[in-house]
Amino acid sequence: MKRHSPYQDRKSLEIAMTPMIDVVFLLLVFFIWTASFQIVEYSLPSTLTPLVGKGQSTEKQLEKEDFDQVVVRLIQEGDQPMWMVNEEPYSSLAEVRKILREIIEEIKSDTSLVIDPDEGVSVGDVIDVYDVARQLNYQEIQFAVSEDT
User: Fold this and answer.
1) Which stretches does DSSP call E strand in the chain?
2) Count of CB atoms situated within 10 Å of the CB of 116
3) Which long-range CB contacts under 8 A does 137-142 form with residues at least 24 apart?
4) What is the pLDDT of residues 78-137, one digit of tens each?
5) Whether pTM exceeds 0.70
6) How far apart are CA 49 and CA 45, in angstroms?
7) What is the DSSP letter of 61?
8) What angle in degrees, to the nearest 10, is found between the helix axes of 123-135 and 93-102?
9) Listed residue (84, 86, 63) closest to 75, CA to CA
């Protein structure tokens, strides 16, 4: 006795590729929109001043003391900000980056950083210092606030 199979009358199996291609393109568009292609800028344009003196280094040497925390204070002077790292003034973000790198690499790698901006300082300058600290792998970054707020 021969059994009748429901699969005998079926035509050849066809897979519709159009919906599958649509899904692939939608996934591609989703991943492109959510991906971050912004290039991290590590240097800021600045004007260079000629060196004063010949053969003498005017760099400040850090003392090998135990830093509990590093305080970066931002002060607005006219159109340009001024940075103070532990009460030592610096005129450019590159100098601040250099001193923060020396602190974390040579003196104490687990020190905390406090960013203390004055009222007139723009948010962009504060974020620049924060970005520098994150690039140098400071693990604990805090923002100082006034007692009035």
Assistant:
1) 69-77, 80-85, 88-90, 112-117, 141-143
2) 18
3) 137/104, 138/100, 138/104, 138/111, 138/112, 138/113, 139/110, 139/112, 140/112, 140/113, 141/112, 141/113, 141/115, 142/112, 142/113, 142/114, 142/115
4) 888 888 888 888 888 888 888 888 887 776 667 778 888 888 888 888 888 888 888 888
5) no
6) 13
7) P
8) 30
9) 84
Q: Which residues contact 97 (CB under 8 A, 6 or more apart)?
A: 132, 136
- Amino acid identity, position 101: R
Domain residue limits, the chain: 69-143
Rounded Cα gap, residues 57 and 128, in angstroms: 27
Looking only at the bridges linking them, the beta strands covering 141-143 and 69-77 are unpaired
In whole angstroms, give the CA distance from residue 148 to residue 28: 50
Question: Which class does domain 69-143 fall in?
Answer: alpha beta
pLDDT in tens, 42-87: 555 555 555 555 544 445 544 545 456 788 888 888 888 888 888 8
